[in-house]
Amino acid sequence: MSIALHPGSFDPPTLGHLDLVLRGRKLFDRIHVVVGVNSRKSPLFSAEERVELFVASLVAAGIHDVEVHAWGGLTVEIARRLGATVLLRGLRQAGDFEAEQSIALMNRRLAPGIETVYLPSREEHLGLTSTLVRDIAGMGGDVSAFVPSPVAQALRDRFQGKA
Ligand code: ADP
After folding, report:
1. Active site annotation includes 25
2. In whole angstroms, what is the distance from residue 44 CA to residue 104 CA?
3. Where are the alpha helices (DSSP H) in the chain?
4. Who has the most CB within 10 Å: 72, 88, 138, 149?
5. Residue located nearest, by CA, to atom 21 of ligand 1
6. Cβ atoms < 10 Å from Cβ of 88
7. pLDDT 10s digits, 60-102
């Protein structure tokens, strides 16, 4: 059975992340999403909130067979614990590749049996980042074209009265 892990910060999850999971489900028997606990020092959403948002986004998309975990340790360690042999990551622009390549090489040194697989972003998600979504929502902009509806709602709630 092929098990893949999709690790990331997901602060917040976007349609780009959801699309990677949807496409990954066609390639692997099982996908686990892993929300990094320490990946940003002061995230907009706590790790628990990001897990809840990803779960709600999957449910809204009719997906019930993807587990979402919060994890503060090494990605390869939770991969081993879950029996995953693939780390699934996305590539948008060329800049992503350099960063992703460093992470992938380091992960291979740490765990030679675990491979990183990149999926190219869909065209419509090329410029889509969690950072931009946070910035736009923080200034009162409409992000409903970029994030699943539970995330758009959570951003409205978070920034209500603050924009
Ligand atoms: P990290 O901080 O670990 O990069 P992110 O939440 O920013 O976490 O991204 C997690 C993964 O999803 C990364 O592999 C990233 O390249 C990918 N990703 C993010 N946004 C998109 C997108 N719009 N299209 C495709 N992949 C994306």
Report:
1. no
2. 26
3. 15-27, 47-60, 75-82, 94-110, 130-138, 149-159
4. 88
5. 16
6. 24
7. 999 999 999 999 999 999 999 999 999 999 999 988 999 999 9
pTM of the full structure? 0.95
User: Which candidate, 151, 129, 131, 157, places its Cα nearest to that of 60?
Assistant: 151
130 is catalytic: yes
Query: Is the minimum distance from the CB of 57 to ligand 1 under 6 angstroms?
Result: no
Tokens in use for 13? 């999850």
* CA separation for the pair 123, 84 (Å, rounded): 28
CA-only gyration radius of the chain, Å: 15
Residue 132 Cβ < 6 Å to ligand 1: no
Residue type for position 137: A
Contact call for residues 44 and 11 (beta carbons, < 8 A): yes
DSSP 3-state of 7: strand
Active site residue 17: yes
